[in-house]
Amino acid sequence: MSPTPPARRLRLGLPRRVFSQVLLMQLAIAAGVAVLATGLFLAPLGEQLDDQAMRRALAIAQTTAQRPRLAHDLRSTPPSPDGPVQREAERIRKATGAEYVVVLDRRGVRWSHTDPRRIGGPVSTDPGEALAGREVMEIDDGTLGRSARGKVPLRDEAGEIVGAVSVGIAYDSVRDRLIHAVPGLFAYAGGALAVGALAAWLISRRVQRQTRDLAFSDISALLAEREAMLHGIREGVVALDRGGRIRLLNDEAQRLLGIGEQALGRSPDGALGAGRTADVLAGRVTGTDLLTVRGQRVLVANRMPTDDGGAVATLRDRTELDRLGRELDSTRGLIDALRAQDHEHANRMHTLLGLLELEMYDDAVEFVGEVVGEHRATAEQVTEKIRDPLLAALLVGKATVAAERSVALRVADRTRLPDRLVDSRGLATVVGNLVDNALDAVAGTPHARVEIELRAEGRTVVLVVRDTGPGVPPEHRESVFTEGWSTKEPPAHRERGIGLPLVRRFAERQGGSAAVAEAPGGGAEFTVVLPEALTEPAAAPALTGGPAPRSTTEET
C-alpha cells in the first residue's frame, strides 16, 4: 500500500481561526487559574486545620490541668480504672470530643486513658518537655494512632509540677474535615471555570467579529502587506484616531508635510501648526480634492472618515502640475501676444508698402523710425530701472500680453532694482503671480491700468503692484492669501487660489510679508517686503542708472 500523500496527512495542532484559538487559550487560562487557585487554597488549608486541632488539644489540656482537685487526686490515689483521675479525664474527653485525655505523674505513668488496661503503664511518647514546665503542641504517633496533641504541666496548689496532662485529637478527623471541604472547593472552582468559559466565549465572539474570522497568520500577512503598500505608494497617507490625533504617517506624507515620526500621537494643529493644511486634515474644511499649500508644495487632499470614528487623509503633490499650468498660461499669453504683434506687423508692412508705392519716401523713413523707436523705448525703459535680466525680460513679455488685453502696464518712476538679487527666480515668480492677478482683475474694465514698483531699500526689496480693478473688500483681504480661495472661475487645466498663497509663503520664508490694501484712486495694491533679498554692494557691480524720468510713471 502506498503511503498517504503529504497533503492528506492529519495535522494536529491549534485551529487556524482566531475565534477557536482565542477560545481555547481562554479556556486553558481559566482552567489553569482555577486549578492553581484550588491548589494554593488547599495547601494552607491543611496546615490551618492541623494548627487549629493542636491549639484545641492544647486548650483542652490547659483547662484540664486547671481543675483544682486533679493534682490532689493524682498524689493521693493510686492509678486505677475506677479512680477519680480516670473518671474526671473521661468526663472531660466525652464533653470535649477529644480522642484521649491522659493524666500522668512525674514518672510518666498513666493515671487515665481511653483504654483502661493501659492505666498504670508508661506513656508511649516522651513527656519531658511538659514535666519541665513547657507547653507542647505537635502532631505525632501514639498508641491510638496519629493525632494532634497538646501537653501541659500539672501543678498543685503550691505551683509545684506533679505531673502532666496530654490531650489528643485524632488526625483522621482533621483529614476527614479536609476531605469533606474538597467537594465544595471543587464546586466553587467549577463555577469559576464556567464563568471564565462564558467570558472566554464572549470575548472570542467579539474578536471574531472584529477580525472577520481571519486566522492569525492572515492578520499578520495583511499587516505586512499594509505596511509595504503604505510606504511604497507615491501618495501621502495620514491616519487619525477618534480623538483627532495622528496615528499613522507613511513616507510620502512625511516628505510632503515636512514632518517626521515625532508627529505621531499629536493633533494636526500641534504637528503642523495652525493653517489650512491642519484644517483639512482635522476635517474642519470639507469637500473633495481640497487644495492646500505646505511650504512650497501645492497639495490636493481628500479625507474619508473610518468606522472607528477616525479618518484617513490622502495627499497628492500638485506642485509640478500647477507650475506647468502656470507656464501654459504664460505660453498662451505669449502666443496671443505674438499673434497680435504679427497682425500689427502685417498692418505696418502694408502701410509701409503703400507709402513706397506712392513714392512718399520721406514719410516711409519717418514711419519706420517711429515703429522701431517705440519697441526700443519699451525695452530700454524697463532695463534702465530693473537691472536683473530675468525680471526685465519677464516685464517686457508681460507688457506685450497687457497691450494685447488692452491694459496699460506701467513701471513706476521710483522703480530701481540692482542686479544683486539673492533669488531672482523666486522674485520673478512673485512678480509674475501678482501681475497676472492684476491683469485678470482689470480685464474688461475701462481705462485698465496696472502699475509695478520695484525698489531697493538697503538689502530689502519692496514690490508694489497696483491696479484699477474693483479692489479687494476689507473682509476678504486675508482670505485672498488662503489656499483655494478665489472669486474667478478656474481654467480647465488647473485650480485657482494658489498664486497669492505662494506669494505670501515665499515672503514669509524670507522673513518678509505680503499684504493687500486699497490703491490710491481705487483698485487693489499688493505690497511684498523681502528683507535680505539683495547681496552686499561689493558682491556685484554698482547700479548705474540713467537720468530719472520726468513723469511719475512711464507706460511700457
Short recap of the structure:
The chain has 556 residues and is of the alpha+beta class. It has 14 helices and 15 strands. The radius of gyration is 53 Å and the shape is rod-shaped.
- Which fold name is given in CATH as the topology of the largest domain? Heat Shock Protein 90
Tally of DSSP β-strands: 15
Major sheet: arrangement of strands: 13-14-12-11-10-15
Helix % is 40-55%
Largest sheet: 6 strands, mixed
Nearest-integer average pLDDT: 77
Q: Judging from the principal axes of the Cα atoms, what is the shape?
A: rod-shaped
Q: How many H/I helices?
A: 14
CATH architecture of the largest domain: 2-Layer Sandwich
Overview of the structural elements:
It is a single chain. This protein is of the alpha+beta class and 556 residues long. 47% of the residues lie in helices and 18% in strands. The strands form 3 sheets. It has a 6-stranded mixed β-sheet with strand order 13-14-12-11-10-15. The chain has a 5-stranded antiparallel β-sheet with strand order 6-5-9-8-7, sandwiched between helices. It has a 4-stranded antiparallel β-sheet with strand order 1-4-3-2. The longest helix has 48 residues, at 18-65. The radius of gyration is 53 Å and the shape is rod-shaped. It starts with 17 loop residues before the first helix and ends with a strand.
Topology, pairings included?
Layout: H1 18-65, H2 70-76, H3 84-96, E1 100-105, H4 128-131, E2 136-142, E3 145-155, E4 161-170, H5 171-211, H6 216-232, E5 236-240, E6 246-249, H7 251-257, H8 268-272, H9 276-282, E7 290-294, E8 297-305, E9 311-317, H10 319-357, H11 361-385, H12 389-404, E10 408-412, H13 424-442, E11 449-457, E12 460-467, H14 499-509, E13 513-518, E14 524-530, E15 553-555
Parallel strand pairs: 10-11
Antiparallel strand pairs: 1-4, 2-3, 3-4, 5-6, 5-9, 7-8, 8-9, 10-15, 11-12, 12-14, 13-14
